[in-house]
């Protein structure tokens, strides 16, 4: 028996192409900005107010400004065009790339697999996440652990910046870690590790409570993924503008 | 408030078919299934359509309306404009029988491949004791009405017929998850999910959740938790290293 003979790729009449296009453009713009700032190698630290952009935190190589290296300089100066963030970016990028939300986003937007529901994909073969390299998506939890450590470092940086007083930059750094924290906590792997892997919630009331709270956040994982990603860029931009002297920080105290 | 609505309905069988145009009366409060019934009653008495409860609970009238997998009985005509031409086609993923009726036996085959509930051997029926919090997760999955819209929309089989053998589809991976999360089930379903039901083929693009008329969070609450359990078992380097070193 054969399927119904319908030649059209899809019969959808709505603008199904708009969400994948928006996602593609959004991710592309953010990638370009992040790549530019990563390889710029400058304007990541405001010495006067101790603002360190999250994109350069922790700054671990010898070309880092000493004051910005809150955790020491573990590595020698990097050769050529390489800058300090290349040490931490693989972990941050790995966390986002293997994230269950972003997988949906870029499989649809960048790989058209599928571009939208009930719209035929252009590929003749499909093996999903069963083979290399996509089988590596199963390592999401390890990137979650790494991203959690980097989040703690970002929180430390944000708290440290309060030592010089209070300005708009402090509020931005604080909001940034709040969003990053919410995104990291709402991760599906975090939800699984906290309690999702259990069969008997009743035997583990604390983990069950944690699971229920993380599940609430997890319902907003997509929104938190975008909010935290955009806000990291905005935070970085603010620090860069203040560090370069383009704008001055709006101070409330000191 | 009545108007003459424009419809394009796929008519044919496995030897071929095409979209046919109809103009049918539409009344206030009606759903697409009402229109299909009026079409049968007034213009196309041999039009084949599978339906039963007309209340979104039997899962019989699955089809595609303007290209979107929907239940005919739960799609209100008020969601369309009067000038819009509404296209009604059968589910694409399954073999056609006639007009809007498809052969969904693929799903029954896949259902039989999932081993049934396996309680502990020393526990007789009637002795099962569970806390509500332990079973409510899998109770969400029991809302499934087996309309197979998720199976139909999943691109793994919709766009790749060759994957049908290896992939059970979201509905039955959800069934595996339901049993795996059941506090009294003793069967090992994690390896099964990956090796025998094709969980690795799922790339979590969430179309199954988007089309579910029962609004079950298939991806977030069944498929991703199963993927995480598989990661626990198969892709945890620490466990892998332990197994290699100590041959556990």
Automatic annotation (TrEMBL), chain A:
Residue spans crossing the bilayer: 16-36, 81-102, 142-162, 168-187, 224-247
Keyword Membrane found: yes
Keywords recorded for this protein, A-Z: Membrane, Transmembrane, Transmembrane helix
Source taxon at top rank: Bacteria
Annotated protein name in UniProt: Membrane protein
Organism: Lentzea aerocolonigenes
From TrEMBL, chain B:
GO terms under biological process: respiratory electron transport chain; tricarboxylic acid cycle
Entry-linked Gene3D superfamilies: 3.10.20.30, Alpha-helical ferredoxin
Pfam families on file: Fer2_3, Fer4_8
Cofactor(s) required, per the database record: [2Fe-2S] cluster; [3Fe-4S] cluster; [4Fe-4S] cluster
Keyword field: 2Fe-2S, 4Fe-4S, Iron, Iron-sulfur, Metal-binding, Oxidoreductase
Keyword Transmembrane helix: no
Domain of life of the organism encoding this protein: Bacteria
Domain 2Fe-2S ferredoxin-type positions: 5-92
PROSITE patterns in UniProt: 2FE2S_FER_1, 2FE2S_FER_2
Keyword Metal-binding included in the entry's annotation: yes
GO MF annotations, alphabetized: 2 iron, 2 sulfur cluster binding; 4 iron, 4 sulfur cluster binding; electron transfer activity; metal ion binding; oxidoreductase activity
UniProt cross-references to InterPro entries, sorted A to Z: 2Fe-2S_ferredoxin-like_sf (IPR036010), 2Fe-2S_ferredoxin-type (IPR001041), 2Fe2S_fd_BS (IPR006058), 4Fe4S_Fe-S-bd (IPR017896), Beta-grasp_dom_sf (IPR012675), Helical_ferredxn (IPR009051), SDH/FRD_Iron-Sulfur (IPR050573), Succ_DH/fum_Rdtase_Fe-S (IPR004489)
Annotated metabolic or biological route of this protein: Carbohydrate metabolism; tricarboxylic acid cycle
Family designation: Belongs to the succinate dehydrogenase/fumarate reductase iron-sulfur protein family.
Protein name (Swiss-Prot/TrEMBL): Fumarate reductase
């Amino acid at each position: 028996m054969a399927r119904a003979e319908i030649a059209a790729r899809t019969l959808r009449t709505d603008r199904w192409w708009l969400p994948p296009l928006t996602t593609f453009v959004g991710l592309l713009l953010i990638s370009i900005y992040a790549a530019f700032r990563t390889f710029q190698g400058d304007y990541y630290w405001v010495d006067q107010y101790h603002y360190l952009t999250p994109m350069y935190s922790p700054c671990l190589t010898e070309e880092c400004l000493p004051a910005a290296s809150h955790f020491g300089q573990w590595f020698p100066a990097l050769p050529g065009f390489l800058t300090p963030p290349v040490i931490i970016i693989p972990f941050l990028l790995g966390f986002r790339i293997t994230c269950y939300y972003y997988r949906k986003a870029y499989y649809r937007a960048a790989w058209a697999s599928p571009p939208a529901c009930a719209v035929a994909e252009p590929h003749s073969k499909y093996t999903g996440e069963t083979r290399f390299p996509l089988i590596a998506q199963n390592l999401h939890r390890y990137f979650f652990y790494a991203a959690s450590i980097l989040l703690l470092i970002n929180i430390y940086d944000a708290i440290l910046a309060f030592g010089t007083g209070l300005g708009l930059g402090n509020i931005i750094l604080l909001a940034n870690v709040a969003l990053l924290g919410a995104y990291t906590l709402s991760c599906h792997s975090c939800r699984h590790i906290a309690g999702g892997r259990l069969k008997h919630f009743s035997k583990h009331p604390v983990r069950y409570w944690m699971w229920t709270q993380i599940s609430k956040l997890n319902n907003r994982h997509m929104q938190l993924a975008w909010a935290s990603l955009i806000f990291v860029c905005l935070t970085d931009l603010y620090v860069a503008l203040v560090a370069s002297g383009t704008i001055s920080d709006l101070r409330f105290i000191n | 408030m009545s108007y003459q609505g424009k419809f394009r309905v796929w008519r044919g069988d496995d030897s071929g078919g095409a979209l046919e145009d109809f103009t049918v009366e539409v009344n206030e409060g009606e759903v697409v299934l009402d229109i299909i019934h009026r079409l049968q009653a007034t213009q196309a008495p041999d039009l084949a359509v599978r339906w039963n409860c007309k209340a979104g609970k039997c899962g019989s009238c699955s089809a595609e309306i303007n290209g979107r997998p929907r239940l005919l009985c739960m799609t209100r005509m008020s969601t369309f404009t009067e000038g819009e031409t509404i296209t009604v086609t059968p589910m694409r993923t399954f073999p056609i029988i006639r007009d809007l009726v498809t052969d969904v036996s693929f799903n029954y085959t896949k259902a039989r491949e999932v081993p049934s509930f396996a309680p502990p051997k020393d526990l007789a029926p009637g002795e099962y004791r569970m806390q509500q919090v332990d079973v409510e997760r899998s109770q969400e999955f029991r809302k499934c009405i087996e309309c197979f819209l998720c199976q139909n929309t999943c691109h793994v089989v919709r766009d790749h017929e060759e994957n049908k053998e290896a992939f059970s589809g979201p509905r039955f991976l959800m069934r595996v998850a339901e049993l795996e999360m059941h506090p009294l089930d003793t069967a090992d379903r994690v390896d099964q999910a990956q090796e025998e039901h094709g969980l690795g083929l799922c790339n979590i693009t969430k179309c199954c959740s988007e089309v579910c008329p029962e609004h079950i969070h298939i991806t977030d609450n069944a498929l991703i938790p199963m993927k995480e359990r598989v990661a626990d078992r198969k892709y945890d380097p620490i466990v892998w290293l332990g197994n290699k070193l100590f041959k556990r």
